[in-house]
Design a protein that fits this description.
Layout: E1 4-5, H1 27-37, H2 54-57, H3 63-68, H4 72-79, H5 89-117, E2 119-122, H6 143-153, E3 160-164, H7 171-177, E4 183-190, E5 203-207, H8 213-231, E6 235-239, H9 257-273, E7 278-281, H10 290-305
Parallel strand pairs: 1-2, 2-7, 3-4, 3-6, 4-5, 6-7
Length: 308
């Protein structure tokens, strides 16, 4: 079966204050539970990660930045929830940062499993607005660049392609991997939304607001095969944000839930047909049904790619 990585600590709670941001901090549990209820996986089938540690985080983050995350004022700014600055640092670490460290560990584990099994899915991660020296957009740790850096340092990969189909540009990821000649990013994003300043990227595909599903899928279908054939990565890390959904409150693209299933199947199929391992992370999505969209896509991928 396709490995699916999950830990109960992924879920974010801060005495209800986290609801001041439209991100659903409990969507990871909802996806996990839906996959069990649908018979896609049993409770014991999920792979449990450990949290990333500080030495690993220092592979991509500046020490000064990691120290700043202990400051409630700085952390509240990264999380875009000003009221969190009133909570003590230890509470924010327990309720917010520790879950993000587990999810970051989940991304690293999913990448390792993808190299072994051909594909793996982390039910968290995709913190693509986190850079080496700053965070933002509810992202603190740069999980995807970190996983790529660790695997490269260990000699397990030579080239990594990041495919970012979240509605928002992966500015943090782009800023970190930009100097790396061995990593590239293909990023389809809406120009009119956060972040206000876009980073330079290898393969940017900016879109106007209002793009419908077929137009969006054509962009991916026309671009991804060529990028895969030209770059020939050893690993594809797929940032599968659900916020291109037509009902998302923080973006203005018009993909249906069915379009998003087709998008994820398209990305994974193009990579697997070329023998490229795929690690998928979930990233953003702010509609109330975001968890269901992700559950639907994971179910579709498991149905197609599970073996035996």
């Amino acid at each position: 079966m396709v490995p699916i990585v999950y830990h109960p600590r992924y879920n974010l709670t801060a005495f209800g204050l986290e609801r001041r941001h439209p991100f659903d901090g409990r969507k990871y549990r909802r996806i996990h539970d839906a996959l069990i209820a649908r018979g896609i996986r049993r409770a014991g089938d999920f792979v449990v990660p450990r949290p990333v540690d500080r030495d690993e985080l220092l592979k991509v983050h500046a020490p000064e930045y990691l120290r700043s995350t202990r400051n409630p004022e700085a952390l509240a700014k990264s999380l875009e929830i000003p009221i969190l600055r009133r909570l003590p640092g230890w509470t924010l670490d327990w309720r917010i940062l520790a879950p993000m460290r587990y999810a970051t560990g989940g991304t690293i584990l999913a990448c390792r499993l993808a190299l072994e099994e051909g594909m793996a899915i982390n039910l968290g991660g995709g913190f693509h607005h986190a850079a080496a020296e700053w965070g933002g957009g509810f992202c603190v740790y740069a999980d995807v660049p970190l996983a790529a850096r660790l695997l490269r340092d260990e000699g397990k990969v030579e080239k990594v392609l990041v495919v970012d189909l979240d509605a928002h540009q992966g500015n943090g990821t782009a800023s970190i991997i930009g100097p790396w000649k061995w990593a590239e990013i293909f990023d389809v994003f809406e120009t009119a939304v956060f972040p206000p300043v876009k980073e330079l990227e290898d393969h940017p595909r900016p879109l106007p607001s209002g793009v419908i599903g077929q137009e969006y899928l054509d962009v991916v279908r026309d671009s991804l095969p060529r990028i895969l054939d030209d770059f020939r990565p050893d690993l594809l890390v797929y940032n599968a944000g659900s916020d291109p959904f037509e009902g998302d409150p923080l973006a203005h693209l018009r993909l249906s839930a069915e379009d998003l299933v087709d998008r994820d199947l398209l990305v994974v199929t193009e990579a697997r047909e070329r023998g490229v391992p795929v690690a998928m992370v979930l990233s953003g999505g702010y509609a109330s049904t975001s968890w269901k969209i992700h559950a639907d896509t994971v179910e579709a991928l498991a149905t197609r790619f599970d073996r035996g």
